[in-house]
Amino acid sequence: MSDHSADAANTAKDNLPFTDSSRFHLGSGRYHIRRDNEQEQGFEAIYQLQPGVLLRVMDLTILSGKPVPLLSPAKRLMFNFKVRGDHQVEFPDGTMGAITEGSLWFNYNDEEQEMLDICESGEPFLLVSMLCEPDTLMLPPFELEAAQLPEVVQKVLEGQSLVTEGFSMGPELLQSLRMLLDSDTTDSVGRPYLRAKSVEILCLALRDILQQENQRGQAHISKREQQKMSEARRLLQKQWQNPPSQDELVQLLGIGKSRLKECFKWLFGYSISDYVMRIRMQQAQQLLTESNLNVSQVAWEVGYEHPCNFVTAFKRQFGMTPKAFQKAGRERQRA
Length: 335
Known about the structure:
Blueprint: E1 10-14, E2 30-36, E3 40-50, E4 53-62, E5 68-72, E6 77-84, E7 87-90, E8 96-99, E9 103-109, E10 113-118, E11 124-132, H1 151-157, E12 162-168, H2 171-182, H3 190-218, H4 223-238, H5 246-253, H6 257-268, H7 272-290, H8 295-301, H9 307-318, H10 322-334
C-alpha cells in the first residue's frame, strides 16, 4: 500500500502513542501516523472503510528492543495478520504470546486492554489488522448467520468477555494481503478497492479459521463418534425433504446434542441445518435446470411451503433468484 501524505480528508499525526485510543474512533477518512523516533521508523495508517469496519496497516522498522505499551480497543473483533517479522506480546495477566510471520491472531475484549509489544532491534514489523463490531459479519455484505461463524467469534456473540487465539494464514489469504499492500490507493477508485479487498481478506480469514478449528476438533473425535456422524449424514442425505430434527438424531444415535453439533461441523464443515440447506439448494438447481417446473413447484419439491422463503434462501446461497438462474440456464441450452 503506497505511503502518501494525508490529504484534506485525512488526519495526519506524528508518533501518536500506541496507547492513544483516538486512532480507533475514526468517523471517516483515515489516520496517517508517521513514526520516526528512537524506537521505530515507518508509518501507521488506519482507514474507516464502512460503518463498523477499520483497516489498520503498521509498516515499521524496529530500532530499539525496549518493550512498547500498546492498546487493544474494546468491543471490536480484531483479526491481526503478521505479514513480516516476529514479535511477542505480554498480556495483562503476564502470559506471553508469540506473533510470528504468517500467523493470524484473533482477539476480542470487553474493555480496553493495555499490553506490551516486544521486538528485537532491527526486526521488520509489517502487520495488517481488520477491526469490526461483533454484529458486522451478520450484516451486508457478509450476511452470515451466527452458526456459520468460527467458534472464536461465536464465543464473543455468546457473551464471553475475552477471547484470544492464534491461527496460521493460508496461501490465498497471504496473496490477498500482499496485493492490498502493493496497491496504489491514491486514485479515484482507491477507497472502493480497499473496501472490496478488505471484505475479501475478512472472508479468507474466516475460512482459514474455520478450517483450522475443524482440524483441531477432528483430532478429538473418537472412532465411535465418527461412525455416528457418518450415520447422521446418511440419514440427512436420505431424508433431506423432511430431515430428522436434532432431538430426533440424538435419540437415534445415542449421543449428546452439543457433541452431535460439534462433531458434525468438525467432520463435514457445516452445521446440520446448513448441510440440509446445501442438499436442498443442489436439488433446486438441478430441478430448475433439467425440469419444466416453475419456481413455486421447485420450492415445494425441495421442502418449502412458502415460495418466498425459497427465493430468499436461494438468492442468499447463489447470489441470484431462482427465476434468473432458470432463465440463464435455458439461454445456455439454446445457445
